[in-house]
Specification:
By secondary structure, the protein is an alpha/beta fold. It has 10 helices and 8 strands. Helix 8 links the parallel strand 7 and strand 8.
Length: about 290
C-alpha cells in the first residue's frame, strides 16, 4: 500500500487540538481536491485512495485526511450529533489550518461521498465547495440489505476479509489491502469509536430524534456533482444516482461495472472518470 512517494507525503498535525493524519501532494498552486475515505472497518486515506492520489497529484493539489475515529487521526467522536456533522467541521478546520480558503473539489467513496453531499447540503459550507464527486455514497438513504453484512467486526482477519470481499472486486492487491485495513481496524480506540454511536441506552434516556430531511436540502443546489454508481454494488439500491439527480440540477451520473470501491480495485479507470469531470468543471467555471 501507500508509503511516502515523491508525489505524496504523510503528515500528522493538531487540528482543533486533535491529532489529524492526512496525505497530501501535488503542486502547491494546484487546484485543491480533497479525497474522503470509506467508513468501513479500518477505513483510512491510504486504504481508500492509495493508488488514486499519485495520479491526481500530477495535476491537482491533493489532501486526503483520516476522519476522526479512523486511521491515524484521534479516536475522538461526537455521539450527540450526526456522524457527518462533526467530521465536516473538522475537515474544514484542517483546510483552514493549511491556508486553503478557496472552494475545494471534494471526492469521496462511500461514507466519504456521503460526507461530501452532507457538506453540500449545509448552507454554512456550500460556498466552500467547488464540486462534489461521490462514488457509491448517497448521503445516507437508499441502503440495500447487504449494508448490514459489513457492520460487525470481531477483530479477526477472516472477518475483515469477508467485509473486503463485499466492498471490492477481486484484485491482485487484495492481501495488501487487507494488511492496510487490518492495521487501522485493530488500532487502539477504533473499535470503540465505531461502536460507540450504536451503544444501547436505558429506556428512560431514549429520545425521539427529529426526522432527517436529507436529501431535500440539496434541492436546486447548482454546485456541479458527479454521481458514480456501480452496478455490482450490493450495499446500495440500484438507481440511487438518478434519485439524487432529481435534486441536483448540475449533477451527472456515471455507471461503472464494479462493486462498492472501484477506486481501490480499478484506480486508473476510476481516476479517468473523476479527472475528466474535474477538468470540465474547472474549465466551465473559468
Amino acid at each position: 500500500m501507500l508509503t511516502e512517494t515523491p508525489l505524496i507525503t504523510e503528515t500528522t498535525a493538531l487540528v482543533a487540538n486533535l491529532e489529524t493524519r492526512f496525505l497530501s501532494g501535488g503542486p502547491d498552486d494546484g487546484v485543491p481536491v480533497v479525497f474522503l475515505h470509506d467508513g468501513a472497518w479500518g477505513g483510512s486515506s491510504d486504504v481508500t485512495w492509495s493508488h488514486v492520489l499519485p495520479l491526481a497529484a500530477e495535476t491537482f493539489r491533493v489532501i486526503a485526511p483520516d476522519f476522526l475515529g479512523y486511521g491515524g487521526s484521534a479516536k475522538s467522536i461526537r455521539v450527540d450529533v450526526s456522524p457527518f456533522a462533526f467530521r465536516i467541521r473538522h475537515l474544514f478546520s484542517l483546510l483552514d489550518s493549511l491556508g486553503i480558503t478557496e472552494p475545494v473539489h471534494i471526492v469521496g467513496n462511500s461514507f466519504g461521498g456521503s460526507i461530501g453531499l452532507r457538506a453540500l447540503a449545509d448552507e454554512g459550507y456550500r460556498d466552500r465547495i467547488a464540486s462534489v464527486t461521490t462514488i457509491n455514497g448517497t448521503g445516507g438513504p437508499w441502503k440495500a440489505p447487504d449494508m448490514a453484512r459489513i457492520g460487525d467486526f470481531d477483530g479477526t482477519r477472516e472477518r475483515l476479509e469477508e467485509i473486503v470481499d463485499i466492498l471490492c472486486d477481486p484484485s491482485e492487491d487484495k492481501e495488501a489491502q487487507l494488511d492496510a485495513r487490518m492495521r487501522w481496524a485493530t488500532a487502539p480506540g477504533h473499535f470503540t469509536a465505531m461502536r460507540g454511536p450504536h451503544m444501547p441506552v436505558p429506556e428512560a434516556l431514549k429520545v425521539v430524534r427529529p426526522a432527517d430531511p436529507f436529501p431535500a436540502p440539496l434541492q436546486g443546489v447548482a454546485t456541479p456533482a458527479l454521481l458514480v454508481e456501480c452496478t455490482g454494488d450490493t450495499l446500495l439500491e440500484s438507481g440511487w444516482a438518478m434519485n439524487l439527480q432529481a435534486e441536483l440540477p448540475n449533477a451527472r451520473a456515471v455507471l461503472l461495472p464494479y462493486k462498492h470501491c472501484p477506486n481501490i480495485t480499478h484506480p486508473q479507470e476510476t481516476w479517468n472518470v473523476i479527472g475528466a469531470f474535474l477538468e470540465s468543471t474547472i474549465e466551465g467555471g473559468k
